[in-house]
Amino acid sequence: MISLLKNYFRTVNIYDSDSNLTPEQRDHENRSNIIATRIFLIILVITLIIFILAFQLSFQTTIVTISNPTQEQFENLPFTAYCPCSRISISYNTFTSIVVRFHQVCSSDFISDRWIQSIFTGSNTTYFYIIDFRIYGSTAFQALASFCRLSKTNAFQSITLFNQISFISPDTLTQSVFQSQIDASIKKFQLTTPNEFKTQLNLIQEMTTHSKLQSALQTNYLLTYYAVDIWQFIIQTQALGYLHVNNSPCFCVTDFNCKASSRIYNIYGEATELTVNSNSKIFMSINGFELGCLPVNAILLSTLECFYNQTCLNQLISFFPTNEKFLAMNFSEQSRFVINSTVQMIVNELMIEEWMANISYDKYFKQCAPNLCTYTKNEKYSFTFILTKIISLLGGFTLVLGFIIQLIVRFIRRLPRTEPITCNYVAFFVNLEKVAVLRALKTVAVVPGLIILYFKIINSFIFLSLKTIVYSLIQSFMSLRDVAILPAFILSIFALIGIQLYMGVLRQKCVPTYESFINNSNIGFNISYNFYLKQMNNENELYLLCGNPSRSTKCPNGYVCWKDRVPILDIQGEF
């Protein structure tokens, strides 16, 4: 069987011979046709291999278009899909709702009129010692109730304004990108809202401090007067001072944040506000509660530790002429504030215990309502496609190739053969004796015959040179033919593999993910995804190169490998 195949391939011939030739010419032509057939089959096989490898290693890029995609269809699209929204500007209140839970003191009895009236001492207020809780307790809790009302009003107004802001979304965002962007927007809103309230409060405190207003409770300045004579008296304002825990003095004229621990004394009477004698006695020290130059400063510098303790609360209320009962607050470990947090710390956070945001991606997608989605899909060619392409390409290629190869082989084999060129110079000069030109030189002895000799030499030399050069080139080509085919084939294969492996690698780069870009950006919180895409496509930025079609290279954490994508439309208004 093997010998039959061997004989078949030795004698295979796809070309027809001319029937009008002589037997010798027919044998010569058959031999030429067999050689041409072998060359044709070799080139055909190499071409088939190259075509098959080229199609197998390359990817088919197609642009897929989906009209009016549903949310389920959109979620199954690749990351590079581009789906412009039919409605670019969407209000936050259409897909988000923000609810706040305030500190429990704002819903407790301690900001109610019942509590404030129960600890109000009326006209006897200034009869107690200066650091007695009964002097400023009622006004301090009035200030605390005001802070709760202001915090609620400010928070609700800020939420209303936030809901009216338009979210700019030129193209449809995926659920993860949408969630991260809205979370970042809400987080920045939660940070900026308390800061605005804190700034306003600090401004009011500074104005009050520098105006040097005198408290009616005489806790910062004391108005004194004395008579010089029966017709003359002098009124003076005396700035009060307090002792800190470490007994260091502090005066309200220079520092409105002076404070001292609040207590209940047995001192009571007219003109005893600044008097302490040997009979003075401390009935109770109120844990965490401070007094200061003004009731507002006092409550801000205080903690609410005593009001989390029912025993402390009952003892405190016993010093007031009331039968009202009050319940202490319950401290929760889940609170963002510790039990000894000052009221100032709570107010700085707008007295908000928890922000609760409900974000609906379904509502956002309905508002966005993309009319069209386009994306590129890279996939390998199917076997049917490759087979169809090869058949269509080889149809005309084989016809032209067979015709050209037959002409070349017949042309080469019909050239007359001469002696091969040798580098033996002795044999070369001996053979010159056989050349017709030298024989002509021997026979010509007269001058008039020099002209004829000249033309004979030139003609003979030109003919010999052309024939020798052409034959030498043909012999060199035939000698190198078999050697050159294999390297050319190998180089072609490696070139195709290299092109396919590294095609587009210089356009594939590691860029920050949308979440990383949002978290590290110092731009306003309303950053559109389209703006993010434009920033990532900035050619001036140097990014780490990544991967190839085989995805052999991975990007670091927080980065994603981006390949060529559908061009992004230049939509105005990224923010």
Automatic annotation (TrEMBL):
GO terms for cellular component: voltage-gated sodium channel complex. One of its GO terms (biological process) is membrane depolarization during action potential. The chain crosses the membrane at residues 39-59, 381-409, 444-464, 484-505. It comes from the Eukaryota. Keywords: Membrane, Transmembrane, Transmembrane helix. InterPro entries: VGCC_Ca_Na (IPR043203). PANTHER family: SODIUM CHANNEL PROTEIN PARA, VOLTAGE-GATED CATION CHANNEL CALCIUM AND SODIUM. This is Transmembrane protein.
